Amino acid sequence: MTEETMLHRLPVDAYTSQAWLDREQKAIFSSTWRYAGFVEDISEPGQYMAVQAGLNNIFIVMGRDRRLRAFHNICRHRGTQLIRAVGRTQKALTCPYHDWTYDLEGNLVSVPDEDHEYGSVDKSCLGLKPAAVDLWRGMLFVHPDPDAGSIIEWFGDVEPMLGPHNVEELVEYADARKTYEVRANWKIVVENYIDVYHLSHLHSGTLAMYDHAKAEYGFVGPHFAFWEPPSDAYGADIQKNAPYPLVVPVEQAGAWVPMLFPGIGLGESESAWSVFVITPLAPDLTRVETRTRVANASEWSFGKQASRSVAFWRDHITGKYAPEDGAGEDDPMVSGDFTAEDIYACEQQQKSLQSPYFETGPAAKGEGPVLGHQQIVLDYVEGRR
Amino acid sequence: MRDFHRLQVLETREEIDGRAKTVVFEVPPQRTETFAWRPGQHITLRFRLNGEELRRSYSVSASPFSGEPMRITVKRVKRGRVSNHINDHVKRGDTLEVMPPFGGFCLDPGHRLRRTHYFFAGGSGITPLFAMLNSALCAEPHSFCHLVYGNQDAGSIILRSELDALLVAHPRRLTVSHVLSRPSLFSSFGFWRRGRIDRAAIDAHFSENPPYAQDAQYYVCGPGAMNGAVRAGLMDLDVPVNRIHMESFGGNQMIDDSVSGVAANASVRLNGSVTNVPVKKDQTLLQAMRDGGLDPPFSCQSGVCGACAAKLTGGKVHMRARMALEDADVAKGRILTCQSVPVTEELSVRFG
Predict the structure, then answer these.
(1) Is A134 close to B238, i.e. CB distance below 8 A?
(2) Which residues of B touch A66 (CB under 8 A)?
(3) Is A183 in the same domain as A209?
(4) B343 or B251: whose pLDDT is higher?
(5) Does A92 reach chain B within 8 Å, measured CB to CB?
(6) Looking at this predicted complex, what is its ipTM?
(7) Residue A65 is nearest to which of B212, B215, B238, comparing CB atoms?
(8) Which residues belong to any copy of the Rieske domain (chain A) (predicted)?
């Protein structure tokens, strides 16, 4: 038996092989609550959407009672992933392939030409397979198992460690919505998000708003909680230095940056609230979707806040390296954009995993969360959680 | 066994200008287990007025999770002998005969449950719903409650100040929407809507208060006509029937006299022994059992309380009313013996 090259607790294989990703898709992404969007994505009766949750495609639709229903998007006839809501009142769900039609509770109500095609069909055992859906912290979540239990059983214990934000009262800042792909394994992206050690180094120029030395963090079940206070310079006058109008009381300024399992990052600060959703696409390819909420305030107050805070951002937030030290105009290390810095680091790490000479050094204290996450992934994949 | 116990009245309070009275009971420590109640359950009071025994069921309006003592609020019913007796005469220190709490119209809170509870109350139908919503607020911290409460005018709203206090205590988890059928022109009371709790009102309510927790449950308690209208409205708005829970309160509940009972022989299993009871034509099972010398449990004798429920294990009956049972109970063979007349000549019935 050859000794596996390890990246701390996990073999390097876990970051490069399809077999590992298949196991994770099954044991992790298909058996936990999956982010599906914002509450406002389905706001009227009859609206529906389909989301991929691990191996499952789940269909969500709102009834006229404004309650959401979730079903596996699999027509019970040929299994086609084509369900949609139709009709003027959107009371019916139908698969356009052969027009099998279901009611909002998933019961099969009509099979076209039933008489001469079938004689009769026992519709009672051909309902859509139900899934679970719930709203939490302004977000839609789905679970493939209709008896998954309440979403509080999953997130309840970590909730007290999150920010004091009234997420439902914030509004989406549409321009901040981005979806991009990172050429790295999904765990590399998670590990980067929860690596406390790198904050003062990779982001030495970009995250100077917060005092990383005072960060408090740890796992609550499979979820990672993180909080840090404003830095002295930023905290000297939060009301002036914050880039947007505040969304929490000034005395509670700080950054809550949890990574909920699996791969659901939040960035909750005194002036914005963001979600950072990590979805594996291939062993070395990951999709990141970010959406942001801000105060429900006028454009005028955003403009005023931007001009008040401009001096702080100009004086304190820079690229890691000065432009003259960069490797050209596009060098993420001079961009002054911490996301660009992170993507760069993740992709460069993934590249080196291919090398036969790859080997890791010791993990720092601030990288404890990285080891913690690796252990949790291992526990799920090996069936201990 | 569910017997009557003598309980002392700890305190009484006049409500809505003397048109209702709250009666608070003192439950001695050795009886707290017997008198433990689930939110939504009712107690039965027994009075002897002018030599006649009268029983009435009243919902406990306090939540067992709020630490308050057991209490009921009794609204005067026109020509109602018991309700007027209570309002006129019952006072602190009196001893009343009370049967322990009972009933299947309940909301059992769970600390880890996360639900949206919609309540639709009409008049004194608020009493069980108040106990339920207060319990959900006290003992189900992740859940939300929305109450639509129909009354004639602002002056006839019972438990109004208690609801206001809950709104102050739980501003993010509770909404209360008052619907008044005949609001006074001179009242400054801010109500939500004029009219009745009909389909349009329910639709508007859902659109203003969509469920946040997606495990939504619906509780309906009011006069029979309101219950029917709310249930029909909910179903028309796609609410599945297994999420609707209801209990009828007074008024003209629907009685189905269309089937007359046949003479039959009923085999009754009660307290471990089996007795054969002859049932006369058009007689209810409860009457037949009492005529036959049995002592089966019963209370309201109007199909509301559920105290007389039993399981039908053979034969068929017709129930004239069955507000105390949910469809799922009926499907499992539960019957109300006070409302059941035989359809087949042989019946088997089991209590407990």
Answers:
(1) no
(2) 206-207, 210-211
(3) yes
(4) B343
(5) no
(6) 0.86
(7) B238
(8) 35-142
